[in-house]
Amino acid sequence: MTARRLALYATLTMVGLVGCGGGDTADPRPQGGAGTVTGDVTVFAAASLTESFTRVGADFEAANPGVRVTFSFAGSSALANQINQGAPADVFASASPANMTTVAGAGNSDGSPSVFVRNQLVIAVPDGNPGGVNGLADLAQPGVKVALCAEQVPCGAAAAKALDGAGVELTPVTLEQDVKAALSKVRLGEVDAALVYRTDVRAADDDVDGIEFPESAGAINDYPIVVLKNAPNGPAAQAFVDHVLSNPGQAVLTAAGFQAP
Q: Which pLDDT does position 59 carry in this prediction?
């Protein structure tokens, strides 16, 4: 009798397990996790994020095979204006809070922006430093040609703050609309120096040298990121932002020379 009861119990238990594991089982993947978003994601990002975000985007696509990320890299002020004029985008990553405020103030952000990295200026000079530039004061010397970003651009605003803090006055030979354009003047040998981000010099490899200067510590830029209010693909946009803020995303950015917020 005992053996029969044990056999019956075992049979009923197996039937129950089979019933729970049938075809109606829910997807075991957590909602919003890797692989659960699809479609196109358009990211408007500061020019200084070009190399690192290209890598971050590739990693995000690999984790979400149904997603394609498209980037528009430019000066943060230009991107903010485009967003406020109705340009279709899902995510905005700015090189300064001021340009993010322009977008949020117009009601075009979905939620509060998150600062995801910080960046610091250096003096970029051509390989070998033919102009003999060693600090900010040297940029004001006669005959030294300097490229700066325009002041409405984050790298330009940071440069103005650093120069003011050092008491250095200079007249640049060119004002550029994004940091990559300023760096290009150095790479082409058209100027003796430019004030750009540390990350841009690192990305330029051996084409330019970077000179650190202490006044840059007082002009560090915070980089905020946000999903846009009218994002065509809100779920994938949020997933991209989450990836940027995640440990893998932060590792890519730190390796590129960005500082943790």
A: 98
Q: How many CB atoms lie within 10 A of CB 72?
A: 14
Does residue 235 surpass a pLDDT of 50?
Answer: yes
Q: Locate 43 and state its tokens.
A: 């990211």
Q: Quickly tell me which residue has 């943790």 as its tokens.
A: 260
- Nearby residues of 7 by Cβ (< 8 Å), 6 or more positions away: none
Asked whether 192 and 144 are in contact (CB, 8 A), the reply is yes
Q: How far apart are CA 257 and CA 261, in angstroms?
A: 13
pLDDT in tens, 15-49: 333 333 333 333 332 333 456 899 999 999 999 99
φ, ψ dihedrals at 96, nearest 5°: -160, 150
Residue 207 has a pLDDT of 85
What average pLDDT does the chain have? 89
Which helix (H) or strand (E) element contains residue 189?
none
Q: What percent of the chain has pLDDT over 90?
A: 85
17 SS3 class: helix
113 near 104, Cβ under 8 Å? yes
pTM to 2 decimal places: 0.84
Cα–Cα distance, 225 to 42 (Å, whole number): 13
